[in-house]
Amino acid sequence: xxTLHSLFALSIPLLEIFVRGSATYIALLAMMRVIGRxxxxxxxxxxxxxVVLVAQAAAVGLHGQASSxxxxxxxxxxxxxxxxxxxALAYRWPRIGRLIKSxxxxxxxxxxxxxQVLRRELMTxxxxxxxxxxxxxxxxxxVERAYIEPNxxxxxxxxxxxxxxxxxRPDVTL
Length: 174
What we know:
Keywords: Cell membrane, Membrane, Transmembrane, Transmembrane helix. By secondary structure, this protein is an alpha+beta fold. It is built from 7 helices and 4 strands. It folds into 2 domains: 2-100, no CATH class; 105-158, bsu07140 like domains (CRO Repressor, 2-Layer Sandwich). Strands 2-1-3-4 form a 4-stranded antiparallel β-sheet. The chain is elongated. The protein starts with a helix and ends in a 16-residue tail after the last strand.
C-alpha cells in the first residue's frame, strides 16, 4: 500500500509545481510568439524533432525532482490553466490578444510581394510561389491578396474572386 501512496503523493510542493509550470509556459509562449508564423504550420520531420527537443529541454525546468503521477497531473493542469487564461484574455481584450496571438500578415497585394513581410517571416519568393501552386495559382499576378495566417499556412484571394484549390488536394478528374 505504501508504494501506491508514493505513486500519487506529491513529491514536491504544489506551489513549486505551479510556479515551474507557469514560468515555463509563459516563457515558451513568448519565444514561440517571437519566432514567427512560418514555424507553426505543417510539421515536417525536422519540425517534429525540434518539438521533441524543446519538450525535453523544458521538461527539466518543468518537473524538477517530481516523481509522482499527481505531480505530473498538477503540472499538466497548470499548463492547461494558462492556455485557457491566455485564450480568455485574448478574447476579452483584443489589445492583449494582439500581443498574445499572431494576426494574418499580407504577403501579396495585387500581384506584388510585400518584401518586408517576406523578410520578417524568412520566406523567399520561391517558397511563396510553391504555396500558391498548391492553391492552383501559377502566377502571383492572379492574386489580389495572399496572407500568411497565424498557423503558418497561406490563404489566397484571387483577382477573379474564384475559389483557389484547397492546399494538398489538387483538382484531378479521372
